[in-house]
Design brief:
This protein is α+β, with helices and mostly antiparallel strands. The protein folds into two domains: about 10-90, 2-Layer Sandwich (Ribosomal Protein S8, Chain: A, domain 1), CATH 3.30.1370.10; about 95-190, Ribosomal Protein S8, Chain: A, domain 1, CATH 3.30.1370.10. It is built from eight helices and six strands.
């Protein structure tokens, strides 16, 4: 794959949900172009196979940018808007995916689990997002989380508690405790003399 001394083309592939290919491309190619511009990669979208090839010229961009582009594409594939997915360009943001089929395998049990995570009129999902500062996407049989590591771990645990049947009140109390703990940690870090 090398093309000259010190210059290599690195490729990675992402399988995308067929109904999300259009979102990755965007209106007149806007989203695809923005991913390319902001990460320095080249995207080749294959609608027939629902896949995206990411190409990185190592002489022009850093390998980390390939990983960022891949995470953005995966986030969009898991139901996030491009605007929310672009949060993954920040160094401290991660994408975390929870496969709900670990908690139920029938269509009915998965629908019930997703309903518990979303809550009545989206209340539970909104509370998780507000208490942790993450973005949540419940799409197909997955829950995707975008946020910094500490807050994403708390959100993941809250989602897992709900998927395992914990009462909503128990999960809300957990989120309140964790929010206080994380705020204390941030405050102590801020006060620490260097």
């Amino acid at each position: 794959m090398g093309e000259g001394a010190g210059k290599y083309i690195v490729r990675d592939y992402v399988n995308v949900s067929p109904d999300r290919i259009g979102v990755i491309i965007g209106n007149r190619g806007r989203v695809k172009r923005e991913i390319e511009d902001r990460t320095g990669v080249k995207l080749i979208v294959d609608s027939s196979s629902s896949s995206v090839t990411i190409e990185l010229d190592t002489s022009k961009s850093d390998f980390v940018n390939l990983l960022k582009a891949k995470n953005i594409i995966m986030a969009i594939s898991y139901g996030f808007s491009p605007e929310k997915a672009f949060r993954l360009l920040d160094e401290d943001q991660i994408l975390d995916i929870i496969d709900l089929t670990q908690y139920g395998d029938s269509k009915n049990s998965l629908a019930r689990i997703k309903g518990r995570i979303i809550g009545e009129r989206g209340k539970t999902r909104r509370i998780i997002e507000e208490y942790t500062g993450v973005y949540l996407s419940i799409y197909d049989n997955y829950v995707a989380i975008i946020g910094d590591y500490e807050h994403a771990v708390v959100a993941r645990h809250a989602v897992q508690m709900l998927a395992n049947g914990a009462q909503h009140r128990t999960v809300y109390n957990y989120l309140q405790r964790e929010r206080r703990r994380l705020k204390r940690m941030e405050f102590e870090l801020w006060r620490k003399p260097w």
